[in-house]
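hey so i finally got around to running both of the ones u sent me last week. sorry it took forever, my laptop kept dying halfway thru and i had to restart like 3 times lol. anyway pasting them below in the order u listed, first the sequence line then the structure token line for each. didnt double check formatting much so if smth looks off just lmk and ill redo it

first one:
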Amino acid sequence: MDTQLDLSRRQPLLPLGSDFPMTFYDAARLDRYKDAVLQVLERTGVRFASPKALAILEEHGAQVDRASGVVRFAPELVARALARAPRSFWLGSRDGTLDLDLASGETYNTTNGCGTEVVDWRTGVRRQPTKEDLAAITRMVDYLGSLQFWWPNVAAADCGDTHTLHELDAAWNNTAKHLQGMVQGEREAKYAVEMATVIAGGPEQLRRRPPMSDLIGTVQPLVNDKDGIEAALVFAAAGIPVCFVTMPTYGTTAPATKAGAYVMGFAELISATVLVQLAHPGAPVILFPLPVHADPRTAALVTAPLNHRGLFLPSELVHHFGLPAMTGYAGTDDDQPGTWLAAAETAHTVMLAGIVGSELMTTIGLTNRYQLFTPEHMMLDDDLYHRAANAFRDLELDEETLALDVIDAVGPGGHFLGQAHTRRHMKETVERSVGQEIGPDGVHYRDPLEVARERGVDILENYRPEPLDEAKAAELRRIVAAADAELRG
């Protein structure tokens, strides 16, 4: 991380990836998981709480029990529906300059999401977050190159039932990057589509380069709830990508074995995808399997255990089903930034994420089991991310980098300080961590937590992204006000 921040412009996007692509599971092993998922879908089934969804599924040949809402899927129906889903597509941005190509082979990163508390960076008070807080944090997201798309890092808790729409409003006014919202409910989704259409410039532009996608959660075990699945249908109809996420908890809402939890969670994800493809063939869908741990003594959520067995399975299994993947890495159970635990839990998984090959991932910015935002933790996580972004990249290899002529010119016993080649490349070799600074008297160190806080607050208070066109901003305000009037009663 640089010792000084240039707040006149955002940092270049720095997606995660590897120049040494790897896979960890062969087709036979992935097929065994896939067959198990298909067995659950055919034998056990998944409950849909939406009459609209049940009607669509029944029309296309699924076995629907209207009394219970449980739907069973023949493997042939699943295969036919999944064949319609695109393997890759573009995620658009506010002005078209920061679009993300899911076929690029890169992994695009965002923050952790839906934090419920902030430590106010002006007063030091720990409290619920507001829309104003989210707007400021969104400016930080716009600035940092480690973040290529936006999640609502904290909730707009002061905006009541329509907070997810206010979050989109805060985001589009403070970043040009792609948004992945968390809007639930049919009416709410229609308002979100209206907002996205304003940003895109029309319905056709919205389909070509959707400036938002939406995260829809399944319910464990084996349920697609009404608000989630009906929102997904609205977004799919408009061409807005839907990211279905499942969060089975080992031993409580899912089998205690990882293999069993993965199978159950994938049955939820695939059932939702089948519905969307039957209703709107070719609709863009992303799958996000995110199993979590429960403490066996208390059943409390544990977000970052030592046991990461199966870390590479979720994205490879998503790809085996023929869909783009989102995965969750990093995060810490510690509620204090700058501790050994917070750094270790983040560094371990972010480093490994570089070789997994998911199209999207969520990693940085919250402590206390993804609940608490502080600017210093965001900046420390950003530093760890930059380390990971370089770890799996190959060295440039050409005549210039091999430097044979330079070596020959200097020869045995000489030095390279006077070479033009050194002047061209010396800065490439120097990278400094948070707190490591070079002054006239040499290298010295400051408390990394203090420096990270200074930099984070500097961005929050002083960075100004390109403003949204005022006519579009006014239209967003009108739409959100209409949603408030209807949905708040």
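and the second one:
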Amino acid sequence: MTKIYEGFKGFIFYFHKPMEEKTALITGATSGIGKATAQLFAKNNINLVLCGRRKDRLDQLQKELSKHVKVHTLNFDIREKENVFSAIASLPNDFSDIDILINNAGNAHGLEPIHEGNTDDWDAMLDINVKGLLYISKAIIPKMVENKSGHIINIGSTAGKEVYPNGNVYCASKHAVDAINKGMRLDLNPYGIKVGAVNPGMVETEFSNVRFKGDDERADNVYKGIEVMTPENIADIIYFVITRPYHVNIGDLIVTPTAQASSYLVNRKL
């Protein structure tokens, strides 16, 4: 929470929490970018609320990171609105003030032209990438507004900046994240809340395995011949963003492997 003091001759001074007193909530914390970010935050003494669907992974991560910081886990599906709000409402006092929100949970399902798309896949992408991000933000932001302090990082994608063949609904969901990020920054500006997006290109995570529904060979081909980014690379960038001085906000950042110029142009060394 931002503390405000009236000083000499009525001047107002703002004192912000040091990083080691802050609490970050990370969605999609059990793998990939979310997990790497949680691990890096813990090493830098940021307390954590970790959210995810896979309880066994949450428990394991809590055991690992509790050696460094205070960790609380919330096991829910971000698509389920009532579960989101009840989970956030259940936070104990030590974790109820969220200083940093990392909207990381997301997915891609399928890679078909629009006329062959699976409507269940469309529902999953829109429910998680768009509606889930909105639900968790709605649950967290009012207290940030009350405290007049906070930092929100929305994890987007280069797919939110351009559209590629067969990406249709996934790209649409990430374009929505791009618009929401911009809207958040406008709406929350009067309350001193920092809002920004990190939009990665090709990162080697479970992303392609999920997109291709467990077809590991097809997933591996996505990254063949390229030195792609790792989740740790993106976690480093997220940490850089949240550690800028209060008066500095990084609003929108695109990051790709050197070999990737766009979704269409990738320099593969085969």
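quick thing i noticed on the 2nd:
Strands lie at 3-6, 12-15, 23-26, 47-52, 71-75, 100-103, 151-155, 194-200, 252-255.
anyway thats it, ttyl
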